[in-house]
Amino acid sequence: MSTGERRETGGGHVGTLVLATVLGVGLGLLAAPQAGTETRQALRRRIAAMGEDLDGELEELHARGGRARRAVRDRAAQLRRRGRKTYEEASDALEDLDEDIDDVLEDEEEEEEESSALPTVLTVAAGLAAAAYLLASERAAPARERVREAAATVRDEAEARWDRFQHRRENGQPTRDSGSRVDAPGSAPQAS
Fold it and tell me: How do residues 128-142 score in pLDDT, each as one tens digit?
């Protein structure tokens, strides 16, 4: 149901309510056991009481609306501060990135390898921009966790290889520069 249809339906309900009220009051006046002046006075008293109740309800509604406005205003200010902080962090990261790019460009100019400098700079810039997003964005929290897990796995594997290398070295087994064991000539390869 569209918003316009809802409005029309809501307006129809209000019109029906008003018509029913008018008809009810009219029938009540016709069937009233009291004289017209007494009935009108009773109606005036009831309407005045309803007006006072309505005034009280409106005041309460106004107070609630004021609290709601303050809460919305406070939340908007909080979001504005948070957005400003994120913007400033991103701006600082961009300035750092710009400085890094300038440093890379200066180094490349000194080495006169201009043909490969642009892809390198773009790669470094893309990496730094991705790192800044990864570090600053709440949406990237799952990705940060996966990166931490992957880094921990790589670190653990590197430590295990280093430990194996050190162990072989301490046992007097010859090693190559790559850290793998050198087998004696004529020996059969061993399965890992």
Answer: 887 777 677 777 778
Phi-psi sector, 31: left (phi>0), alpha (psi -120 to 50), beta: alpha
Question: Is the Cβ–Cβ distance between 100 and 116 less than 8 Å?
Answer: no
Which residues have a Cβ under 8 Å from the Cβ of 121 and sit 6 or more positions away?
101, 104, 105, 108
Cα(89)–Cα(64) distance, integer angstroms: 37
Nearest to 179 by CA among 158, 161, 156: 161
| Alpha carbon separation from 36 to 23, 28, 43 (Å, rounded) | 17, 11, 10
> Tens digits of per-residue pLDDT, 73-100?
888 889 888 888 888 888 888 888 888 8
**Whole-angstrom Cα distance, residue 179 to residue 162?**
8
**Token representation of residue 181:** 């064991």
What is the predicted pLDDT for the residue at 89? Answer: 85
The Cα 142–Cα 121 span in angstroms is 28
* Per-residue three-class SS string for 149-160: HHHHHHHHHHHH
Q: Which ranges of the chain does DSSP label H, i.e. alpha helix?
A: 3-30, 36-111, 114-136, 141-170
CA distance 192 to 189: 9
Distance between CA 66 and CA 180 in Å, rounded? 74
Contacts of 89 (CB under 8 A, 6+ apart): 136
